[in-house]
Amino acid sequence: MIKERTQKPTRNLALELVRVTEAAALAAGRFFGRGQKNAADKAAVDAMRLLMNTIEMDGKIVIGEGEKDEAPMLYNGELVGNGEPPVLDIAVDPVEGTTLVAKGMPNAIATVAASPRGTMFDPGPLFYMSKIAVGPEAADVIDINAPVRDNLEKIAHAKGMDVGDLTAVILDRPRHSELIREVRECGARIRLIPAGDVAGALMAAWPGTGIDVLLGVGGTPEAVLAACGLRAMRGGFQGKLWPRDEDDRRCAQEAGYDCSRVLTLDDMVSSQDTFFVATGISDGPLLDGVSYSEGFAHTHSLVARGLTRTVREIVAHHHLGTLTELSEIAY
Fold first, then answer.
1. Whose CB among 10, 158, 252, 310 lies 3.0–4.6 Å from 138's, allowing a Cys bridge?
2. What is the spatial distance between Cα 271 and Cα 254, in angstroms, rounded to a whole number?
3. pLDDT per position as a tens digit, 69-85
């Protein structure tokens, strides 16, 4: 007897949003290694906005480039899509790693996430967060309040590994000097990255990257973006808001934020019905970057849906001559 289907397949918005991140990556890719990070960012933003406004959705940017100002960025509060349902929160980072693109370095991505309106965490005045992110095997054993050694030992045990076989990804910042020392004392390996902790968090949850855990302080907006992807990848996440100084701490208190509270995936995005898409701009452990050959541009994307926990890899081959004829974007 065939079991009755409990729910009919529904629209996977991520399969439409991948055109948005592909366009942003293709536009930014032309500036790879040219030392023009603002030009790369603007090209990606223009491409992302153009494609996003063709999608049937009533979207509102809640994780973007701050309030609207003179810069042509996708700003917090901007409405995107054609205004028809579904009604969504949208998080964007047209180029995660503008300096990486400008300097011709690895691991830059273009990324978009979406979830039902009102379900994404609002970081308020707090721009930074202490984070730990892992894959599904260790999702239930991490504790951001525990010592680094305890977390590494529990992650290693959950993955059937020795601590010495683990690799942690950490942003290369002076604030992490003590963290780096502790990880090395435990015997684990470290991949230091100059930028890109959305990609870093996803590396910890995606097989084949060689990364087992993301540790350290990074951007709060990036945590929201990563959480949407980690839901589909069945990864684990914990974070705590990280005030840089007393002014940050005072602003947090006045806005009603508790910096001692441990935030989980459910706090970052409170709906399972999330969509996450990332396209590589430059090569990295997570994604291949934009490459060119014989009149084509090639892109590599991750397309994830939290509701079904389906993650697709999409490799696309874009005919540049045709795109040039059809599009106002300079690919």
1. 158
2. 27
3. 444 588 889 999 999 99
Looking only at the bridges linking them, the beta strands covering 275-280 and 109-116 are antiparallel
Cα distance between residue 88 and residue 122, in whole Å: 14
For the beta sheet containing 128-134, the strands, ordered from the edge strand earlier in sequence to the opposite edge, are: 189-193, 167-171, 213-219, 128-134, 236-241, 263-264
pTM score, whole prediction: 0.93
pLDDT tens digits for range 165-204: 999 999 999 999 999 999 999 999 999 999 999 999 999 9
- How far is residue 71's CA from residue 26's CA, in Å, rounded to a whole number? 21
Neighbours of 235 (CB within 10 A): 24
Q: Are 109 and 302 in contact (CB under 8 A)?
A: no
Q: Which residues does residue 88 pair with via DSSP β-bridges, in sequence order?
A: 59, 116
Token output for 103: 């300097």
* Pairs from 317-326 (Cβ < 8 Å, separation ≥ 24): 318/22, 318/26, 319/295, 320/292, 320/295, 320/296, 321/295, 323/26
Percent of the chain that is helix, strand, coil (3-state, to 5): 35, 25, 40
Quickly list H helices, the chain.
14-29, 37-52, 98-103, 148-158, 177-186, 197-205, 220-233, 246-254, 265-268, 320-326
Q: Is residue 169 a contact partner of residue 146, using CB atoms and an 8 Å limit?
A: no
Q: Positive or negative CA dihedral for 91, 55, 301, 14?
A: positive
